[in-house]
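Teaching assistant's notes for section 4

Start the section by putting this record on the projector. Ask students to predict, before seeing the second block, whether Nudix hydrolase domain-containing protein will look compact or extended. Collect guesses on the board.
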Amino acid sequence: MGGFPLPGEFGERARDILAGRLAPVPARDAATVVILREGVEVYLLRRKASMAFAAGAYVFPGGSVDPRDTDHAVAWAGPSPAEWGAVFRADEKIARGLVCAAVRETFEESGVLLAGPSPESVVADTTGDDWEADRLALIDRSLSFADFLDGRGLVLRSDLLRPWAHWITPEVEHRRFDTRFFVAALPPGQRTRDVGGEADQVTWARPADAVDQAKNGQIFLMPPTYRTLGELRDYRTVAEVLAVEREIVTLMPGVAEVDGEMRIVLDDDYGFGPS
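Reveal the predicted structure now:
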């Protein structure tokens, strides 16, 4: 049986949660964006070993929804929050926050900005000291996303995003996220850069190569990242990925005791750890 073993304190925590002796931590709304470039390649960041969550893992850009991400002042172009809510089975306020968080976090963690001066255009270049100052101000929350866009005369381009998946962190984790996954193409003229912060390394990789590296123990991937890369591995172009009509199904790995050992498990066709 596939799955990921839960040794020590996590194993005991899992038993307590299953027995009803311990309540799971509530999951925070979050957004993740798979940035794609022709090849097909994806942008991955390696989280610093010092991070409290997913330390050392290669992940896509993303993070928690900031309460200000739900601000109606955010200039908006493309599918409405209500339309996104229908896709992700969320109310309009949460959907607005998810899309804003997706665009904001992508800019914070990669330098890529899915916004433009008009509903039909996109920023061509986000390099330079002024952009870096804004990025850092967004990270330390001294600048709201709405004010950032307004100050530059930009509108969020929700039409540049496509829905991909919905994952909830297992109940055994101390930090839990209710995360919607998006995919988006790297806008023409823009380029990612090593922006530091929570990551100590960034790379572009073909999905199949990243999966193989994870299988060989060369890199560490969290289950949602592993599965998403597996789903993307057979696409030949970015356009093919963006054209996919996805039915968004909520996935939350569970906890089970297997031969006396506590494990995180998902489903029979997905062994993401030692069997």
